[in-house]
Write a structure and sequence with these properties.
binds guanine, alpha/beta, 6-stranded parallel sheet
């Protein structure tokens, strides 16, 4: 499908057979819209056959601006996919015990197919304890250790939405991964670690290197990479000198940086210096409009899978 047509051309030839400066955008926004339409169609088929609309619940504690935006986007995506959604909001003085009671209530509610607890949580609440309290069969974020472990050994499981979205982009854009050298920057539980497992699994078959803040050969690893996936949360960290001509670049970063030229005073900056790197890359995701929209879309896919009991009874 969406092989992107927005390539930028220059006339100078290069050793890779592409013109220098010619690259294709990997358009996450358009891909996510296509997938959401596919999901909506499936939901309408289920409902027409007498089945139940998938129902996602989200718990949001406090008033973190970024979290509020994410959760609102998730609720909107539910509407776009024909799902029901329930947003449960609490003040940031909610006790850990009360949050755990809320999780237990959602675990037991047969009408809720899947739910998420938006992170980060206030500091007085133990995030890991909350994640482990979620019934793994409703853990559409894929954060529960049972889902993480099952994914790692290739069993059916809910997979964390950002890594899942990246794989879907690579697949839909026909990016060759078998035997390719993939360098992942970042080792978070939500992105870097699960992505490293997924990129090396059978059928994807990349040779994976994970670099992080203590890596001493990060630049050299990047320069040798066919695919770089940047998920370190450092604005414009990946520069042109770190990229091999023709590499595929996936940018997970979304840092708000000051920008006086914007009415709101900030813009989203990825982990990649897009202007400098794009002309060297063969394919690249923009920020915004790359990985971000895919993340929410994969949460919708996981919710549909939960409603259908695809992974668990
Ligand atoms: N905070 C940032 N990303 C996520 C996510 O994917 N899920 C949840 N629950 N919280 C987040």
């Amino acid at each position: 499908m969406e092989q992107n047509t927005s390539s930028q051309k220059d006339t100078a030839p290069s050793l890779t057979g592409r013109a220098v400066g010619e690259f294709s955008l990997i358009d996450g926004k358009a891909t996510a819209a296509t997938i959401k339409a596919e999901i909506k169609q499936e939901v309408e088929n289920i409902v027409a056959a007498g089945g139940k609309r998938p129902h996602l619940a989200a718990i949001l504690v406090g008033h973190d601006g970024g979290s509020e935006t994410y959760v609102n986007n998730k609720v909107r995506a539910c509407e776009e996919c024909g799902f029901r959604s329930t947003l449960l909001r609490f003040e940031d003085d909610l006790s850990e015990a009360d949050l755990l009671a809320e999780v237990a209530r959602l675990n037991a509610d047969a009408d809720i197919d899947g739910f998420i607890v938006q992170l980060p949580l206030p500091r007085h609440i133990d995030e890991q304890k909350v994640i482990e309290a979620i019934d793994y069969r409703k853990d559409v974020d894929g954060f529960h250790p049972i889902n993480v472990g099952r994914m790692a050994i290739g069993l059916p499981a809910f997979v964390s939405a950002t890594p899942k979205g990246i794989l879907e982009l690579l697949r839909r854009y026909g990016v060759a991964t078998s035997g390719k050298k993939c360098v992942i920057l970042g080792r978070s539980n939500i992105v870097g670690k699960p992505l490293s497992q997924l990129m090396m699994q059978k059928g994807v078959d990349a040779t994976v290197t994970v670099c992080h803040s203590r890596s001493t050969t990060l630049k050299e690893e990047c320069r040798a990479a066919d695919i770089i996936i940047a998920a370190i949360g450092q604005p414009a960290f990946v520069t042109a000198d770190m990229v091999k001509p023709g590499a595929v670049i996936i940018d997970v970063g979304t840092t708000r940086v000051k920008d006086a030229s914007r009415a709101r005073g900030w813009r989203l900056q990825g982990d990649v210096d897009f202007q400098a790197v794009a002309p060297i890359a063969s394919q690249i995701t923009p920020v915004p409009g790359g990985v971000g929209p895919m993340t929410i879309c994969m949460l919708m896919q996981n919710t549909l899978a939960a409603a259908r009991h695809e992974y668990y009874n």
